[in-house]
Design goal:
Pfam families: XdhC_C, XdhC_CoxI. InterPro entries: MoCofactor_Util/Proc, XdhC_CoxI, XdhC_Rossmann_dom. Residues 15-76 form the XdhC- CoxI domain. This protein is an alpha/beta fold. The protein folds into 2 domains: 4-167, no CATH class; 172-336, Rossmann fold (3-Layer(aba) Sandwich), CATH 3.40.50.720. It is 36% helix and 21% strand. It has helices at 4-17, 58-72, 94-99, 118-129, 180-191, 203-206, 221-228, 243-254, 267-281, 304-319, 330-342; strands at 22-31, 41-45, 50-52, 86-90, 107-114, 134-139, 145-149, 157-158, 162-167, 172-176, 195-199, 215-217, 234-238, 260-263, 291-292. The strands form 3 sheets. The chain has a 6-stranded parallel beta sheet, with helices on both faces. Strand 8 and strand 9 (162-167) form a beta hairpin. It is elongated.
Amino acid sequence: MENLDVVVLRTLAAWRAAGKRALLATVVRTWGSSPRPIGSIMALCEDGSVVGSVSGGCIEDDLIYRFTQAYSSKEPGHQIPSGPPGFVKYGITADEAHRFGLPCGGTLELLLEYDPDAASLLELIAALEAGRLMRRTVQLKDGAVTLADAPSPEDLRVDDKSLANTFGPEFRMLLIGAGQLTEYLATMALFSGFAVTVCDPREEYRGAWSVAGAKVVSDMPDDVVIAFKPDARTCVIALTHDPKLDDLALLEALKTNAFYVGAIGSRRNNAARHDRMKEHFDQTDEDLKRLHGPIGIYIGSKTPPEIAVSIMAEVLAVKNGVTLPRDMEVAQAKNLRAVVENDPGVLVCGTR
């Protein structure tokens, strides 16, 4: 699955290029609880087609009803929406919050852009597909749009003159090894919006690969990492258990700005990996501080799909800037479990 923002923009551009009326809705402010974060977008076509989301569904339903009625009706009072962008709020009262399915006390404000320019949308999409981080600025007085490269991800900004929203290329996941666990993890990453590349020089593993949507390459993993040029929107995960394939790739990944670098393996294997890297590659504990392992969060996983869930949860937590409790780390949780099993009377986390 592609990054949702790119899907919305591409679909909207296609509607406009075909001459269809359409609008782009952006969440610009929220108060209290909100189903979707600031910066979320959706597009609505004159025929009622919708892509993207700004709520749990009820606000989308209201927008579809209001604007398809306006587009299709010839009666007075049903003016076709056009002109400069406009703001609309939902959930201002308790009754409205209940009507639109917002959490208690939740309010959100949208900016509606009418008939965005197709050429500008296509320019933005081309830049995103080329891996560029882009800032899209909309002038509120007339809807004029300017595009510029953004040096880093930025929060949405809105004032009485303009709205600026940053769109980035897809988050990427590079997986070393094309085994069964990789298939489950790749599937989860794809539906989480990651662009997935799988690297495995072993033909017998590549030949059995069955996940559509993931790119598969056969070069040596360390060469692939170098060519991949991991950035702050990239994670690199080694899953082969083979030091000849994993270690050099991990070392190259640690030289980059990848937000997550990790490798599968037990506590013993993880310790052995650190020892190898320090002995043979002159790494220090500080150099290896960013290397996750054992990877995943502790959920008692045993099967490949459960292990994939564990790994994906940790990757998403790191991506979203969430600090997980230490007792959710695999190594820490297993150490505590071993203590309890060896001495059932020991007090751990308030329970015996």
